Amino acid sequence: MDKTKTLLVVAGPTAVGKTAAAIELARYFQTEIISADSRQFYKEMSIGTAKPSLEELAAAKHHFIGSHSITETFTVGDFEQDALKVIERLFENHNVVIMAGGSGLYVRAVCEGFDELPSAPPEVRENLNRQLQEKGITSLQEDLAKADPVYFREVDLNNPQRLIRALEVYQSTGKPFSSYRKEKKHTRPFHIVKIGLTMPREQLYDRINQRVELMMEDGLLEEVKALLPYRHLNALQTVGYTELFDYLDGKTDLHTAVELIKQHTRQFAKRQLTWFNKDKEISWTNPLTDNVVALAEKLINLADSSGTGHTRF
């Protein structure tokens, strides 16, 4: 593949404006968008995952939005392989391809490669699921803090699927989940340019709170009610859904459930920023005050002139 081809990554926390920025970039470079948001893969989850609207999807072609069912298994390794195939195909007609999302592990998998994690005996996962049911998610969080403090600081602590996966790796191998990250990156046959979107924390938190209110107005509760028969699936063990399942179970009132969604989403955004801040190849910008297109063009030109795969400005 021609090394002048560029994968332009748009990363950052939830509600920071990645979708709008990615569409603006896609229209400027006349290209398409790979979604690296692990919750937007699922066709049954739309409102609670803040999927792009029909108008936004019409403004620029997206891939991996509603591409899978919650009943399917779709791992980060699967995403790496499938996304690289789509990127290769898109590079046949485009010099730039956009990849946008806040799922750091999925972004890293495409950019650097991802080690296949060891499989655990079924009884290990069964025991952890039983622990979740009997002792609650706090018990899993405490175990992970001891077993793998590195991953504990980065993972979505309200997502039992991620906690259980990390713990089953540790319990079956004796090694922390974080130790399986690739020490040696894969070299991709294209440039990779990374832009991170950020803004003052108070501003971001206000946007998160407003987004949750809008989700409720748009029918999030009805979406969650329709998914009740599937609530045991891993895809639904996530912010915005688990809180409303608790409300429907009578464990809390609706106001409290909505406030918890806001709180948990703010906590998730903080962990996303922690993850992406460790990536020194990311050039940060505020989408509300800065020209994202101008920054992207500058970074791509620098990558082309330097001949290196990664560029930061």
Automatic annotation (TrEMBL):
- Region described as Interaction with substrate tRNA: 37-40, 161-165
InterPro entries for the chain: Dimethylallyltransferase, IPT, P-loop_NTPase
Regions crossing the membrane: none
Q: Where does ATP bind?
A: 12-19
Question: Which cofactors is this protein said to need?
Answer: Mg(2+)
Q: Where is this site: Interaction with substrate tRNA?
A: 103, 125
HAMAP family, alphabetically?
A: IPP_trans
Listed under subunit, the entry gives:
Monomer.
Q: Which family does it belong to?
A: Belongs to the IPP transferase family.
User: What is the name of the protein in this document?
Assistant: tRNA dimethylallyltransferase
Q: Which species?
A: Mucilaginibacter straminoryzae
Question: What taxonomic classification does the UniProt entry list for its organism?
Answer: Bacteria, Pseudomonadati, Bacteroidota, Sphingobacteriia, Sphingobacteriales
